[in-house]
Amino acid sequence: MRVYDSPTLVHDLIRFLRGGTVMLKHGRSGRPHFRYFWVTISQNSRKLVWTEPESKITAERSSIDLDDVSFIQLGCFSKVFKRHPVASTDPSFYRSFTLGLKSGGRTVDIVAGSLPDFEAWIVGLSNLVRVDPVWGGKLDITKEAHFEQLNCFEASLCEMNYIYPSQYILLKKRVKRIAMRTLGVLEQCGNDATKAYKILGGIHPPAVNEKGAVYLTKGELRFIGLNDMDILRITKVWILFQQMNLVYDENFVPATTFGVTERH
Known about the structure:
By secondary structure, the protein is α+β, with helices and mostly antiparallel strands. The model has no long low-confidence stretch (mean pLDDT 94). It has helices at residues 9-19, 115-129, 152-160, 165-188, 193-200, 218-224, 231-243, and strands at 21-26, 33-41, 46-51, 62-65, 69-74, 96-101, 107-111, 134-135, 214-215, 247-248.
């Protein structure tokens, strides 16, 4: 839980990217293939490099300059990905991303092997490129279960961030249960947070503010959501929950905060 709220998160993730990861690369021809990806950073350049994983020291390398990246698109929406379509019901759909180069150039289309790897690469690359990642399309939630339970803000959140209504409703119920449990234990302990902490556990003393919102970090929400949602989508949910007075965290920092989704 703590890793997602760490003040050194970006530094740690970029160090991870420099170490490299094997991921699946979709190309303009042939079948998708595994490649070893890593980031190089020097005084004058920052590059994403990849090569064959079996012989990464001697094999021919390909690379792009990260300064040439225009956008980071989440999901399987690019022309390259559409050569081998992946359904939104496939877990790999939510570990897929596209780096689009400026001036309508080529794309680099990648599928991470795990959700933590996906999170590391997206947050790390977003901070190197200085853009906020966005989904390449909208999820049609109108025929999904529990759609009728969403208000307009919740529906927009789910639609724009590929969150199924059932996922969102379940997470919301879990947060409400945590808030009720926290409030109950605090009252039982005479609002002594230290005593309540011993009963509830967690990564910080429990608290509920004057509006009834429970003290819950985005990292805790990510943990509560298990592996249903990555930290980027969890951050968007956390912000809406805050606006609904369900959660609060005076030290909250979004996963990415650049205010732009494309650079020219």
